[in-house]
Amino acid sequence: MKPISAKTWSLGEIVELLGGEVLCDAELRVSQIASLEQAQACHISFLTGGRFLKKLEQSAAGAVIVGKDMRDASDRPRIVCNNPYAYFARVSALLNPEPAVKAGVHASAVIDPGVKIADSASIGPFVHIGADCVIGDGVVIGAGCVIGASVVIGAQCRLYPRVVIYHGCQLGERVILHSGAVIGADGFGLAHENGRWLKIPQIGRVLIGDDVEIGANTTIDRGALEDTVIEEGVKLDNQIQVAHNVRIGAHSAMAGCVGIAGSAKIGRHCTVGGAGMILGHLEIADNVQISSGTLITKSIHKPGAYTSAMPFSAHDVWLKNAAHLRHLDAMAQKIQGLEKKINELEKKSS
Amino acid sequence: MKPISAKTWSLGEIVELLGGEVLCDAELRVSQIASLEQAQACHISFLTGGRFLKKLEQSAAGAVIVGKDMRDASDRPRIVCNNPYAYFARVSALLNPEPAVKAGVHASAVIDPGVKIADSASIGPFVHIGADCVIGDGVVIGAGCVIGASVVIGAQCRLYPRVVIYHGCQLGERVILHSGAVIGADGFGLAHENGRWLKIPQIGRVLIGDDVEIGANTTIDRGALEDTVIEEGVKLDNQIQVAHNVRIGAHSAMAGCVGIAGSAKIGRHCTVGGAGMILGHLEIADNVQISSGTLITKSIHKPGAYTSAMPFSAHDVWLKNAAHLRHLDAMAQKIQGLEKKINELEKKSS
Amino acid sequence: MKPISAKTWSLGEIVELLGGEVLCDAELRVSQIASLEQAQACHISFLTGGRFLKKLEQSAAGAVIVGKDMRDASDRPRIVCNNPYAYFARVSALLNPEPAVKAGVHASAVIDPGVKIADSASIGPFVHIGADCVIGDGVVIGAGCVIGASVVIGAQCRLYPRVVIYHGCQLGERVILHSGAVIGADGFGLAHENGRWLKIPQIGRVLIGDDVEIGANTTIDRGALEDTVIEEGVKLDNQIQVAHNVRIGAHSAMAGCVGIAGSAKIGRHCTVGGAGMILGHLEIADNVQISSGTLITKSIHKPGAYTSAMPFSAHDVWLKNAAHLRHLDAMAQKIQGLEKKINELEKKSS
C-alpha cells in the first residue's frame, strides 16, 4: 500500500471541495483512504452497500463515506453523499495527487525539426518525436516513447514509458496511455492472390477522444482507408486488441484481453467483460453489456446483457457432458422420434 | 484519412504498371484510393462483388476497379482486371508509397563491435544492436529497437519502433515487424521437481522466412532444443502468442489474439480467426480454416473449416440453457431410458 | 539449434556435479543436449518414459539420461537418476551457461539521483531508473528498460530489454522478466457517475517473490488500495494479464494468454492452461488445474482438474449442433413432457 501522504485533510475540508455532508466530527483529519478491512484510525474508508455493514462495524477506520440511505448506519465521523464509490474515487485523488512533473525536454530526447511542444509539457529520456508533431500543454511523455510524424497530442495527456504512436494519429485532451500500448500500427489488411497474401496499405489513422484511458500493451490499429475512432470517455484495460476501422462509442468500457475485429461499430455506454470478442463488421447498439469470455458473432440491436460462456465443471464431469455436444442434433432428432412414437401409442391406447 | 498525395496518376499510367484494361477514359487522373461510400471525383474506388452495385451507382468516385464479370456494370472510367481486391491493394501501394527513409545509423544508436550493417540500411535513435549481427540492404530499424547478439536480418526488412529480437534469431527478406513484437524470448519450458519448477534452458532460435509480417505486441518464443519456424509469406496480426518449437507453414494467416501452444505444427495456407487457440503438439493439415474463438484440442488431418464457438444469447436466455450443459449426460441417459420404455410399450400394444 | 558449446563434459563430471549414476562409460564426453530424434554422437539425450523406447533405440545419441525404472533399457553410456526430465534441465543449464555480463552502468543510461546500484549489477544502454530505486547484486537490466521511482530489485534478477516497472514495485531475488512485460501499471478501477467513468487512483503496488519468471508482454497491474502479489516460484508465460489486487500462490504456473481478473486469489501449486480465464473476486484452492480455454466463473474450493471448453468439429457439423444450444431448456422440457406421457401410458397398459 502507498505510504501515508504527508498532508492530511479534515472531513470539513474534503466536503468543502467535493460536496456532501459531514456528520459527527468535521475536524477529524485523515491521511489516506483504505478498505474497511485495512483501514486504521488515520484512514477514511467507504461503504458501497448494506451488505458491508458488518465489515463497517468491525472496521478501525477513523471516518467513512456513506450513501444517503446509510446516513445513520454508523455513529462514527462520516461523509454522506449520493454516490459513495464515486466520492471515494475523488477523495483518493485528493489524498494521492500525481507527483509533480518537471516541464521541459530531457537532454537525451531526439525531437525532429518542426515539432511544436508546449512549454509546460514534459518529455522524458530517450523519447523520439517525429516531424511536425504538436504536443499540448501539460503533456507528460514518459521515457522511451516513440511518436511518429504528424501526431497531435492534446493538453494534459499522459503517456507512460514505452508507448508507441504511429504517424498521423491524434489524441484529444487528458488521454492516458499505459506502457507498451501501440496506437496506429497497420491493420491486418490482406488481399489473396495466387495463394499469396498481398499487403493492403493502411492509410487511415487512429483518432482518440478526450478523457480516454488505454491500458498496458493494448493495441489499436490504424484504419485501412478511413480512420479507427475511439470516442471520448472510453476506458480500455490491458492487452485489448482493436482492429482497423473500428469505432468505439463514447463512455464504453472494456476489461482486459478483449478483442474487437475489423470495422466493428460499438455503441455508447457499452461494457465488455474480460476476453470478450466481437467479430468484424458487426454493429453493437448503445448500452449493451457483453459478459466475460463471450464471443459476439452477430450484430446486437437491443440494449441488454449478452453471454455465450460455456459453464465449467470438474474435468471428468465435463468429459461426460461435452461428448454430447457433438451429437446434439442427433439427440434432438431422437426426441422428435420419441414424440412421434408416443403420439401413436396414445392414439392406440385411447 | 491520409491527405491526398501530391502526385496524381492517370488510369492509363496505372494499367501500364499493373496490367488490366482501361475503359472510358485512360487520361483521367486520380490522387487517392477510397471506399465507394467515401470516394470523391479525384478518387479511384473498387467493386469486389455484385452486392455492392447499388453503392457503386451512388458513389462519387471518379474511377473504379472492377472484375471481368463486372466489366459493364458501370459506364464511368474504370479498370477491368482479374482480381479487383488485389488490384486495389496494388493501386493503393502505388498512390501511397512508403516515405523515403534516410540511410545511415543515428548518432544515438549503440552498436556492438563486429556488427555488419549495409550502407543502405537505416538505424533509428536509441537502437541497440548486439555483437555479430548482420543487417541487410535497405533494412529500416525504428527507434528503440533492441537486437540481441548474432541476429541476422535480411534485405528490406522493416522493424517499427520498439521491437525486440533476442540473440541468434534470423529474419528472411522483406519481413515487417510491428511495434512491441518480441521475437525469441524463452519458451515456457519447466521441469517439475519436489513441488518447484525448474527452468529448462531454451537453446533453439526463431527462424522467420521471407515476406512475413508480424503484428504489434505479438510474441514468438525461441525453441527449447530445436527452432521455432515461421515459414515464408506467413501473416500474423497483433497480440498473437506463438510458443516454442511451433512451425507455421508458408502463407498461413492468423488474426489478432490467436495462441499457438508449444510444438504445434500448422500447415501451409491455413487461416485462424481471432482468438483461435491451438493446443500443444498438435498437427494441423494444409488448407485448414479455424473459426474465431475456436479451441483446437486434437490434430486435424483434413482440409476444411472447423469451429467450436458457443453461440451467444441474451443473458437470461443463456442462464436457462447453460444450466443444462452440466447435465447433458443425464439428459442423454433419460432419452435412452425413454426409448427403452417406449419399445416395451410398443411391444405390449402390438 | 544452438551451436555446440566449446567446452565438453564427461558423464563422470556431470554426475559429480548433479548426482545420479553413470553406466557403461564415465569418460564419454558430450558437448550439447538434444532430443532423441536430433541427437548425434557428441550429444546427450534423455528418456522421459517407456513410450519413447523405440525412439531411443533409433537415436544416434552418444549418451542418454534415464530414470531408475529404465536403468537397463539401453546398453549405451547413460546416467541413471530419479527424475530424468529435471536432470535434463540441469544438464542443459550446465552445457549452456548464460553468457557472462559485464558489470557496470552503460554510459547512455539515465539514472536518477539517490539510486543505489550494486557494483556487480549490469545496466544496459538507454535504461532509465527513477529516484530512490535499489538494484541488487548481480542484477542485469537490458537495453531500454524503464524503472519507476522507489522500485526495489533483488539480487540476481534479470530484466530482458524493454521491460517497464512502475513506481514502488518490488522484486525478490532471481526474478526473470522478459521483454515487453509491464509491472505495476494502473489497475482498471473506475467508478460510474452520471454516465461517465471516474478514475480510481491505484495506490497499491506489485510485490513479486523470489524465483518468479514472467513472460514477454505479460502485464501485472498494481493494486487499487492494497497490493497485487505474485508469490515465490510462480511462472507466468507470455501475454498473461493479471489485474489489480490479484494474489497468485507460490509455485503456480500459467501458460500463455491467461487472464486473471481483479481481486482473484489463486492458490499454491495451481496450473492454468493457455487462454484460461478466471473472473474477479474468486478464490481458487491450492493444487487446482484449470484446462486451456476454460473460463472459471465461480470459486473452486477442491483440488482437481476443471474444464469448460466447447469441443470443436467440422464447421457444418458444428452449425447443426450449435443451433440446439440456444434451445437446451426447451429440449429438457420436451423430455420431461415425454416422461410424463410415458408414465401415463404405462399406467394405462398395466
Overview in brief:
The structure is a homotrimer of 350-residue chains. In chain A, a hairpin with a 2-residue loop joins strand 22 and strand 23.
What's the gyration radius of chain A in Å?
27 Å
CATH class of the largest domain in chain A: Mainly Beta
CATH topology of the largest domain in chain A: UDP N-Acetylglucosamine Acyltransferase, domain 1
Percentage of residues assigned to helices of chain A: 10-25%
Mean pLDDT of chain A: 96
Strand content of chain A: 25-35%
Distance between the termini of chain A: 77 Å
Q: Count interface residues per chain for the largest interface.
A: A-B, 79 and 78 residues
CATH homologous superfamily designation of the largest domain in chain A: Hexapeptide repeat proteins
CATH architecture of the largest domain in chain A: 3 Solenoid
- What coarse outline of chain A follows from CA principal-axis ratios? flat
Give the quaternary arrangement of the chains: homotrimer
Order of strands, main sheet of chain A, comes to 8-11-14-17-20-25-28-31-34-37-39
Number of domains of chain A: 3
Number of helices of chain A: 5
Largest sheet of chain A: 11 strands, parallel
Number of strands of chain A: 40
